[in-house]
């Protein structure tokens, strides 16, 4: 089912959402109400009927906007939607305050079940990579292929540059950080985030930087911003400690869908050394290593990621349409 053909159960809960949230050329936003959560979904009109659906899931502190550079490159190939996880982007907090990886995965599953869009080509970055790995493991019927960009899977020795993010999980740290940085401007915060997430922050255009600052100002004004960050960080750390069948690496081994793994050599949050372990763990995987990329390769090198995804589809026997030739990098 395409994003423009919603089942009756969802159609009654869909309303336009624009407001202060940036909407790129050709994009649309809508708000979808589900039990216990409300999700904002960003989509692009399908170029033709019958395209297979794709769903994109962002990382910690991100939003559906993180996929706006990649999605147009896959027009004519998939019917693209990206969601804001509860408490992020333009989605309000979940009613139960649960920001665990399992809760985020449940939100993705609830949306796919309600929208009747599965199976989808599922994309995840960072925290979204952990979430989509769990979705693919527990609901293989919902996933055609899985594309993971710097997935946040457990590391025994995390990089020092990733420690501040993990420290947000500790009770009281988010409040302390808020007080210590109360005089920081949105521009300062954005420069810090970009220095952490990009292999080369210099590739960000002045327009892109301005949009990021505007989005940062909007998020900082939200009363739940730091709570969502802290609780999601705590949820990710807790997921790292789970063993047995609920462990993320064990679940990676259960993923049946053909999987594309994308790792950046300059990633300061997910260790580049984890790429080989991931390639061994996902049974049907191919690895794209980008030595100059940081943590958000789909924003830094969208053409390269798009080309790798097309190759994934070809390897999986799903030949891309000639109309998707714009994805060549």
Automatic annotation (TrEMBL):
AB hydrolase-1 domain residues: 55-300
Q: Which InterPro entries match?
A: AB_hydrolase_1, AB_hydrolase_fold, AB_hydrolase_sf
Out of the domains of life, which is the source?
A: Bacteria
What UniProt keywords apply to this chain's record, in alphabetical order?
Hydrolase
One Pfam family name is Abhydrolase_1
Entry GO MF terms: hydrolase activity
Q: What is this protein called?
A: Alpha/beta hydrolase
Q: Which species does this protein come from?
A: Streptomyces siamensis
């Amino acid at each position: 089912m395409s994003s423009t053909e919603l089942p009756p159960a969802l159609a009654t809960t869909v309303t336009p959402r624009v407001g202060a949230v940036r909407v790129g050329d050709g994009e649309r936003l809508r708000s979808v109400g589900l039990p216990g959560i409300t999700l904002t979904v960003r989509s692009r009109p399908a170029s033709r009927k019958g395209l297979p659906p794709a769903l994109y899931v962002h990382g910690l502190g991100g939003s559906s906007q993180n996929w706006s550079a990649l999605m147009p490159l896959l027009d004519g190939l998939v019917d693209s939607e990206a969601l804001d996880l509860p408490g992020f982007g333009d989605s309000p907090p979940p009613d139960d305050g649960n920001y665990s990886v399992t809760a985020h995965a449940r939100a993705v599953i609830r949306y796919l079940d309600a929208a009747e869009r599965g199976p989808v080509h599922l994309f995840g970055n960072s925290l979204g990579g952990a979430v989509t790995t769990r979705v693919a493991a527990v609901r293989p019927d919902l996933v055609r292929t899985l594309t993971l960009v710097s997935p946040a899977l457990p590391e025994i020795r995390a990089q020092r540059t990733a420690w501040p993010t993990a420290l947000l999980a500790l009770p009281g740290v988010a409040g302390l950080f808020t007080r210590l940085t109360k005089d920081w401007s949105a521009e300062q915060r954005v420069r810090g985030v970009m220095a952490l997430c990009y292999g080369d922050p210099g590739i960000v255009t002045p327009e892109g930087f301005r949009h990021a600052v505007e989005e940062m100002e909007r998020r900082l004004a939200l009363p739940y911003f730091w709570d969502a960050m802290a609780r999601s960080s705590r949820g990710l750390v807790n997921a790292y400690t789970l063993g047995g069948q609920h462990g993320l690496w064990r679940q990676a081994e259960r993923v049946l869908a053909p999987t594309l793994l994308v790792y950046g050599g300059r990633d300061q949050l997910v260790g580049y050394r984890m790429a080989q372990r991931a390639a061994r763990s996902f049974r049907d995987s191919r690895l794209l290593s980008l030595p100059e990329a940081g943590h958000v390769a789909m924003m830094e090198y969208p053409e390269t990621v798009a080309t790798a995804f097309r190759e994934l589809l070809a390897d999986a026997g799903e030949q891309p349409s000639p109309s998707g030739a714009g994805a060549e990098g």
